[in-house]
Design a protein that fits this description.
The protein is α/β, with parallel strands linked by helices and 493 residues long. It has helices spanning 42-60, 87-95, 99-116, 132-144, 159-166, 177-183, 224-236, 250-265, 296-301, 313-321, 333-353, 368-380, 385-403, 411-428, 434-460, 464-476; strands at residues 7-10, 15-18, 26-31, 64-69, 77-79, 83-86, 148-151, 154-157, 199-204, 220-222, 240-246, 270-276, 279-281, 284-285, 329-330, 479-484, 487-492. The strands form 6 sheets. A 4-stranded parallel β-sheet has the order 4-3-11-12, sandwiched between helices. Helix 8 (250-265) links the parallel strand 11 (240-246) and strand 12. It starts with 6 loop residues before the first strand and ends with a strand.
Length: 493
């Protein structure tokens, strides 16, 4: 791999900047995870895959990454003006379940979908409900510094007072506070606030509110924006490298996070802010609030009126990676089917690559070093995955020409080309050959069943040493077996 510097687009400065970690070679990455009150949809897949790509690439180029992605299981109200029901609590009432049952159920559903998409789990996955004490301590600091006030046992952040001192509220999203104050009308229930732009740090729980905790201000629950400020700093420190999330979180969520961190600690916490763009359907943002979303399970099964048929997890991943993370991506069946064909062509080339025989030297048209350089140039240029993929397709033509005997490749160049495709396609882009995986699963099941039959016969023959030897050999391969009264059970550890 060529020695190059990673450049990322910092939303805070609105420029591309050379990535320089705060404490190299360690990198701290925080990404806002899902609010778990419904099934994950295609819109959830985009930030997950965007920051999975970043996580993978940072590790690939030698950094030691601590990746924190939270689960929001409390405090996310229906209205950004701090009014309405908690989304999870509302779902719990409809389903006649405990809120934490709802949170657990949809968290597991989210994990299952991410596993299907080959999204690596984060290093730490904190839940907002598990960090109430940290949030209370953060509120105390903000109060001590004079940037919050208490009304009727609720605590609000004083945006106007904060901006008079720091003059930076709106720097991330490009909003101007004076315009916000002029254009944000008072809503019923907002009279407790000094200003309509102020936001809740802690909300007093009404008698019917289920999720509530004790605090110095009485029984209540934390504000949505507060959670990420508290959890990111707890696990990554008061100054860390990258904060990521969807563009829809830029305002008010991330803007408020920055204000909270500066008010508490005098710094915005994250050095770089990265935002992925939206997925649209018929030109409209895809999301639960608009009711136009397609769940990932529906994508995998094809059970949605917007789908012509089912699409595999790797087709969806490849579809998302074919667009730059900062560009809008419009959903269509035609685009997904084109992605499916493209992925099959790419994986077929990898299969062909494994069959190539080296020659004494490479043809003039075979320049592996240039392919590698172009591929990593693209990835280092703000994770430009579509350009990297186009370079890989340039290489596909070279691979096919060699396979057809039109070109030749030396042993060194062949090894370098195999290394490039393995690293970029599987390690960095996180793609998988689903057909190979399915075949391997069937082979594993059949082979283990056959071996267990042999072991059963050794026990019938009272050759217990042989039976134990088979068990130990399988254990070394990561396959644990357990003898039960109903037979033998096994699992891959």
């Amino acid at each position: 791999m060529a020695e190059q510097k990673l450049i990322i687009c910092n939303t805070l400065s609105r420029t591309k900047e050379v990535f320089t970690p705060v404490h190299p070679p360690h990198v701290g990455l925080y990404v806002c995870g899902p609010t778990v009150y419904g099934d994950p949809h295609l819109g959830h897949a985009r930030p997950a895959i965007t920051f999975d790509l970043l996580f993978r690439y940072l590790k690939h180029i030698g950094y030691k990454v601590r990746y924190v992605r939270n689960i929001t299981d409390v405090g996310h109200l229906e209205n950004d003006a701090d009014e309405g029901d908690d989304k999870i609590e509302k779902k719990a009432r409809l389903e006649e379940l405990e809120p934490m049952e709802i949170a657990q159920y949809y968290t597991l559903r989210y994990h299952k979908a991410m596993d299907s998409l080959n999204v690596l789990p984060p290093s730490i996955e904190p839940r907002a409900s598990g960090h109430i004490l940290e949030q209370i301590e953060l509120i105390k600091k903000i109060l001590e510094h004079g940037f919050a006030y208490e009304v009727n046992r609720s605590i609000y952040f004083d945006v106007d007072l904060y901006n008079k001192k720091y003059k930076n509220y709106g720097q991330l999203s490009g909003r101007i506070l004076e315009d916000l104050m002029a254009n944000t009308r008072e809503l019923d229930g907002q009279s407790d606030k000094h200003n309509a732009c102020d936001f809740a740090l802690w909300k007093k729980a009404s008698p019917e509110h289920i999720m509530r905790w004790s605090s110095p201000w009485g029984m209540g629950f934390p504000g949505w924006h507060l959670e990420c400020s508290a959890m990111s700093v707890k696990y990554l420190g008061e100054e860390f490298d990258i904060h990521g999330g969807g563009m829809d979180l830029m305002f008010p969520h991330h803007e408020c996070e920055i204000a909270q961190n500066i008010a508490a600690d005098g710094r915005p916490a994250a050095k770089y802010w990265m935002h992925n763009n939206m997925i649209t359907i018929n030109g409209q943002k895809m999301g639960k609030s608009l009711g136009n979303f397609i769940t990932l399970e529906e994508m995998f099964s094809g059970n949605n009126p917007n789908l012509e048929r089912a699409y595999s997890p790797m087709t969806i991943r490849f579809f998302l990676l074919q667009a730059h993370y900062r560009s809008t991506l419009d959903f269509s069946n035609a685009a997904l089917q084109a992605a499916e064909k493209g992925l099959q062509r790419l994986l077929k080339a990898v299969e062909t690559l494994g069959k190539l025989k080296p020659s004494d030297k490479s043809s003039n048209a075979v320049n592996v070093a240039e392919l590698e350089k172009a591929c990593y140039n693209a990835l280092n240029d703000d994770l430009n995955s579509p350009i990297a993929i186009s370079v890989l397709f340039d290489g596909v033509r070279v691979i096919n020409s060699i396979h057809e005997g039109k070109e030749q490749i030396s042993a060194n160049d062949l090894a370098q080309l195999k290394n490039l495709y393995d690293n970029v396609i599987f390690d960095v882009l996180g793609l998988q050959d689903e057909q190979v995986s399915e075949v391997n699963n069937h082979l594993t099941n059949d082979l283990v069943a056959y071996i267990l039959d042999l072991r059963k016969q050794t026990k019938v023959n009272k050759d217990y040493a042989a039976a134990d030897g088979i068990r130990d050999a399988l254990a070394k391969l990561g396959i644990a077996i357990k003898d039960t009264k109903d037979g033998v059970e096994w699992e891959v550890e």
